Amino acid sequence: MPAPDTVRTMADDDAPTALTDAERAARSSSFGGIADQYERYRPGPPVAVAEWFLPEPVDCVVDLGAGTGALTRHLITRAATVVAVEPDDRMRALLETQVPEAQARAGRGENIPAPDGSAQGVFASSSWHWMDPVPTLAEIHRVLVPNGVFGAVWTGPDPDGPFMQQARALLTQQRDRGADGADLAGSLTAGGAGPGTADHLELPDGVPFGPVESEMIRWDIPLNADELIGLLGTLSWIILLPDETRERTFATARHLLGELLGIEGDVTVDVAYRSAAFRTRPT
Question: Please, which residues have CB within 8 angstroms of residue 63's CB and are 6 or more apart in sequence?
C-alpha cells in the first residue's frame, strides 16, 4: 500500500519512504509472523490517547490496522462497540484473544467493513503509514457520522529521550568499526520517530477533513537487554532478514548494549516513550 509523499508523519524507520511497492507490501505483511513478539515487546499508547480522541463515551468506533489490539483495549473503555479491522489473520487471531470485547474483522483502511455513517470515531495506531491515504480517507469519511473524529497515533521510544540520545551517539561511533553498529544506530526507535522526522500529520489536498489537532504524551518504561532486543526484533526490516543475518544483528546489538551502555542481565534502563496523536473531523 504505497504512501504518497503528500502524507508526512512521524513514521519510523520501519516504514521508510524509499520503498518499491513490492518491498512495502512485504514489510507491511511481515508482522503476522511474529505476532506474539509484537504483542510482548511493542508497548501501545496509554489510555490517555483514547481519552483525548474521545473525551466523551460514544456508541461505535473503528480501529484500523488494529494489530494485536494496542489501542483497541483502550477504545473498549470509551465506546459501546469497537470494530477492530486487521488484514493479517495471525495478528487478528491474537487480537481476538487479547481483546475479546471487540469485534475483530478482516479488512483494511481502503475498504473498511462498516456501514455508512456508523461510527463516531475511526482511529489508526502505528498503522497509518501502511495505508494509501486518499482512498482510506474517503472510506473514513463514509463510515464517520457528521462531526465524528479521525485520529492517528504513533507510539515508540522518544528519540529526544536521554537513553535514545546516548544510544544513538554511542552506536554511531561504531561506524568506523563496522556496518553493524551503523545499521543499529537508530533502529531502537521501533514504532516512533527517528531524528529529523516530522511530528505532524499532513493530509493530502482536497480531502474533506478540517484542521489537524495534535497532542504529545510522554512517559518512561524500564527495559532490560532482552526487552530492548525484543523490541528491535519487531521492526519489519529485521523480521525480513535471513535467519543467520538476523541472529548476528541481535548478537551485535546485545554486545553493544552491554559493552557501551552497561545494559545486560537484569539491569534496566528507563526509556522515554512518547505517543504523538493527531485528530481531525470531516467537513
Answer: 71, 72, 75, 82, 83, 84, 85, 102, 123, 124, 125
